[in-house]
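Quick log. Single chain, no ligands specified.
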Amino acid sequence: MIGLLKKIRLWLSRKENIVIIIGAVFAITAIATPFTILVKTGWNISYDQFDKLGVVGDFFGGTTVGLLSLASIIFVIAAIVMQKEELALQREEVRKTREEYEVTNQTMKKQQFENTFFNMLKVF
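-> predicted structure:
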């Protein structure tokens, strides 16, 4: 149980996860809003009311589009934050690789010089 709480705290400590939760809340709210309004007004959909379904569709579209657009913007922001962190990690990895390459290059130059030097001694 304690391990699970630590994992949840670690997951929530990342900025993009909080933004994803906020976006999910907006998406769920967008989907639930028209249904909630229909239930609260007591409007029962039946086969006799098919001529009114066009109005219901407009109502659903009107109430959900704004919130779903907001949720999608929030998800894009979360993706940008995640990409920013990944790029920072990638830059660090490239820097370490470059340092390792420089060490390897220096070692190879030294080995090449030693090899040439000792070959010249053999010939001499």
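The CA atoms of residues 6 and 12 lie 10 Å apart.
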